[in-house]
Every structure is written in structure tokens, then in C-alpha cells.
Amino acid sequence: MPINVRRALFTLVAAGCFILASGQFLAQTPATPAERIAALKQNLAQSQKQLRTYEWIETTMISLKGEEKARTQKRCYYGAEGKVVKVDMGEKAAPSSGGGGRGRVANRVIENKKDDMKEYMAQASALIHKYVPPTPEAIQNAKDRMKVEPPTAGKVRLTFTDYLLPGDKMSIDLDPAANRLMGLSVASYIDKKEDTVTLDVVTGTLTGGITYTSETTLEAKAKNIKVVIENAGYKPYAK
Known about the structure:
33% of the residues lie in helices and 40% in strands. It is α+β, with helices and mostly antiparallel strands. The protein folds into two domains: 1-30; 32-236, no CATH class. The longest helix is centred in the middle third of the chain and has 28 residues, at 104-131. The protein is globular, with a radius of gyration of 25 Å.
């Protein structure tokens, strides 16, 4: 074989080895923040689309000063307009403490407190739905205020400041391989910054990699209120 031909073959083989080695190196290189955001947004959008074909049971537990006051269960599914429909399945009321000896004024005070709590819970519920599940649009709007923390314990954490409200913060934990949502935590407030509220969310995965909100815990320490919402029993929606 002529020397020039041998040199050409050697050069091609060396170049091929370099390209393969470079490909392996790139495959092992961690995803960039932009790539992680793009993959997360895609996963969230696909999951929300696929969840529209499922139904599930939502259990809500409300506690005041560490004592459970109410527990409700609802069958949930997506309606024709793309909104979640919730059908009451029953409610466990707080135990009655009697009260036969209370006067009208005392009973009125208690009823007013119940009304205040209902109003606050309505505000808290609205706040939860602003953050959970995170929407691709909100993540895109906050991406310039994002900090990526080094992977630890099998997770990559993305922290957004001023995510939806001035002074709030949301941290998202991702599966570093699939860039899939594993959980999130939020520090926010209702009306005033002094009225702080925290959210901790655990996610689950259905067949096909569908991500759903498994458990949400809201704590309003100033009000001594804790709300836990569990979603379980996912199955194809039976119309």
C-alpha cells in the first residue's frame, strides 16, 4: 500500500476516534441550565396533557394548632372545558365539644372564627393553585432569576426568586438524568409579606413518565394552620 494512502487512512481513523471520544465526553457533560429548563417545560406540558385522561381521589386535611379540624375527599377529573371537576365524596367534621351552656355571644364569636378560617382557606387554596403544578409559562418568565445548585442526593435544584410575587421563592428538584420534576418548595405570602406561607410538594410518576402532584403541604405559621392535600388512586377516566 502506498505511503500516502496509508497516511490518509491513519488520519481518517484518528479523526474518527476523536469524534467518538468527543461524543462520549459530550454525552457525559451535565445539561446546561437552558437545556434543563427546556426539558422540564416539555415534561410538564406533556404530563398535564396526559393527566386529562385520568381521574383520581383528592384528600384534604386541615389542622389548626396541631389538631385536625376537617377531612374531605373528592373525586377529580378534567371536564370538557379543560378544568378540574371535583365531586364531593364525603366529609369528616371536627368533633363537637358540646356547647349547650354557651351563650349567644360566645356562639357568634365561634361562628365568626369559622367564617374567617373559611375565607383564609379559600385564599390559601388559590395560592396553592398558582404554584402547583408549575406552568411552563411561569418557569419561562422566571428563568432569568434562576440559580442552579450542584447535584446532591440524586437531585438537581433550581431556585427561582421573585417567581410569581415580589420576594417569593420557589425551588424545584429535578431528576438529573431525565430533568423530570421530583418535588418543589415555595416560600410565599397571602396579601402581606408578613403573612408567610410555605408549600412543600412531593410528586409521583405514572406509566409513561407522567408526572403528577402526589402530596402538597401548606403551612401558615402565623395562623397555626396546616393543610395537607393528597392525590392518589389515579386511573383512566371512566366517562
